[in-house]
Amino acid sequence: MLIYPEIDPILFQIGPLKVHWYGLMYLIGFGFAWWLGSRRTREADAIFTQEQLSDIIFYAALGVVLGGRLGYIIFYDLPAYIASPLAIFKVWHGGMSFHGGLIGVLVAMWLYARHIKRRFFEVTDFIAPLIPLGLGAGRIGNFINGELWGRTTDLPWGMVFPHVDQFPRHPSQLYQMALEGIALFIILWLFSKRSRPMMAVSGLFLIGYASFRFLIEFVRTPDAHLGFIAFDWMTMGQLLSLPMLIAGFILMRLAYRQPIEKNAES
């Protein structure tokens, strides 16, 4: 049995300025995306420049923050934010939704693709492998915040979160970091190293994330104010992941019904 280390969510403070680990994880995630994208822009057959990469990261960052925050408010806790609207701006307390962030990024990429007159899936195929390491960093932020803990377990790596109770629980934040972050990155990075038909990389991202998230939700404690959404076992995370999974399979089918052509993941 392990004990949660009770990490201070504030990394350091200078006067009234507080730097939170959670916010730092977002910066690290964008840093990973920029670094990996830079490697791709230096390849001989790259179709995006370093300058375009910087624009893509900027647009994506806006989509993540705005979409993630709005998604959490709408999907998970709308009544609370209606009662206390100023809490919307307290992002350092957590309260970001991946699914909302994904919608925000897709809108941002659509706008950017129109701006540079490129096809939408050229942009999403390029950015998809750059995302998972940032997701993993975000889950580390959840762990440091001591939030999104798992259900009780008798497994030897069960972790007691003293601020919750004295029962060993699945460290589900670390499971998500390993699967949605590291494993999904490896799968997408290797898959996208070879030429793939357009939409295939985007489709695999949707399938991979949705599958991992759906499975981990079985050991993650549902949000206390929501509980189970359907069938006495389905959580909001699983419900929101189902459309992703279906969309991913549709994209993969459409992708492999067309000839392979050079795209951003070549």
Structure summarized in a few sentences:
The chain is mainly α and 266 residues long. It has 9 helices and 5 strands; from the N terminus they run E-E-E-H-H-H-H-H-H-E-E-H-H-H. Belongs to the Lgt family.
Structural account:
The structure is a single chain. The chain has helices at about 20-40, 50-75, 80-85, 100-115, 120-125, 130-145, 170-190, 200-215, 235-255; strands spanning about 1-5, 10-15, 15-20, 160, 170. A hairpin with a 7-residue loop joins β4 and β5 (about 170). It has about 270 residues and is mostly helical. It is globular, with a radius of gyration of 19 Å. The strands form two sheets. Strands 1-4-5 form a three-stranded mixed beta sheet, with no helix packed on it. It has one domain (about 15-255). It is built from nine helices and five strands, in the order βββααααααββααα. Pfam families: LGT (PF01790). It is a multi-pass membrane protein. Its EC number is 2.5.1.145. It is found in: Cell membrane.
Question: What descriptive keywords fit this protein?
Answer:
two-stranded antiparallel ribbon; 6% strand; single chain; 9 helices; mainly alpha; 266 residues; three-stranded mixed beta sheet
Count of structural domains = 1
Series of H and E elements: EEEHHHHHHEEHHH
Number of helices: 9
Main sheet? 3 strands, mixed
How far the N terminus sits from the C terminus, by CA atoms, comes to 46 Å
- Overall 3D shape: globular
Query: For the residues shown, what is the average pLDDT?
Result: 91
Q: Write out the strand line-up for the largest beta sheet, numbering strands in chain order.
A: 1-4-5
Number of distinct beta strands: 5
Rg for CA atoms: 19 Å
What structural class do helix, strand and pairing data support? Answer: mainly alpha
Low-confidence residue ranges:
none
Strand content: 5-15%
> What is the percent of helical residues?
55-70%
